[in-house]
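[job 0412] stage=complex_fold ligand=2-deoxy-2-amino glucitol-6-phosphate status=START
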Amino acid sequence: EQIKKGSYDHFMQKEIHEQPHSLTTTMRGRVKDSGVLLGGLKEKEYLKTIRRSRRLVFIGCGTSYNAALAARPFVEELTGIPVTMEVASDLLDRQGPIYREDTAFFVSQSGETADTLLALDYALENGALCVGITNTVGSTLSRRTHCGVHINAGCEIGVASTKAYTSQIVVMVMVALAVGSDQISTQVRRQAIISGLSNLPSNVSEVFKLDTEMKELASSLIDSESLLVFGRGYNYATALEGALKVKEVALMHSEGMLAGEMKHGPLALVDENLPIIVIATRDACFSKQQSVIQQLLSRKGRLIVMCSKGDASAVCPSGSCRVIEVPEVADCLQPVINIIPLQLLAYHLTVLRGFDVDQPRNLAKSVTTQ
Ligand code: AGP
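[job 0412] stage=complex_fold status=DONE, emitting structure tokens
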């Protein structure tokens, strides 16, 4: 086992650090200057069927659901097709409507998650085109869907999903680029994203320079009972996923929240003790996040702000927040960058709190029962 971990102490740590490489393999042979080529969607005019869909439905559980949520704004923007998000178990509980005119995307690292597979059976029965996005070649998901895209992130052993998450987002971005490739009005935007994808692995490598800082942050949070993470837009999913990582491995209560909902309830929790991470990297929501930070500071909130490099004084002019500066990339790719400091934080917090990193209590890598 130690040989497989190489120079790392845990699989989670190794898998976090593998991301520049796993993202490269996810994109290998698929991202060209001229556009994106996805072999799995090429046959039988699947791309055309997806373009004609009345709706795209993204279905998954846990981290895989969060990856799909991260991609949703960009998929809607580039395809012009509305996206509905479905947690697999909730879709089944509600027996929610799925139509023949829908394309349902099933996102799953293992391709064996029982809830996701049951939701797949349900969508097949209802006549939707079913597309699988999975890391596991030959998995039940990849066999039962009509078509799909493998994420090619390499084997993930730690129960906490890390490198699969970032590769899932990149696959969804590639799907959006491929589906939207017939639209002239978005050509310039598509080209900018394509060059952003090419530089993404080196930008991810940059983020590892924050490792010591995240360890220090973890030691300052070691005795906290709870941690809130506020995000919005592209980074609402980052807030949910960051909180899920902290919860599942560091065994600390943590909630990811939509920053736009802050004043509708969560604001009551704010005091000088509760640590709150606010994601405020540059995108269309930046000024709204600046005002969220001001509102939290005026309630004496204990803030940790994630911002784009060079933006420390723009997000926290008073200097009273702890600031994490990350490289700025294309807005829709920023979630891939922003989750990494939070993965590192969850990892260090777990080690410092003395919990099992790779096998958190009560959890299994693949949940094959309902
Ligand atoms: C991720 O850290 C979790 N262990 C969990 O939420 C996981 O993503 C979920 O169970 C779905 O698994 P899948 O991607 O293999 O379908």
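Residues 61-64, 108-110, 113, 116, 159-161, 248, 366-367 surround 2-deoxy-2-amino glucitol-6-phosphate (CB under 6 Å).
[job 0412] exit 0
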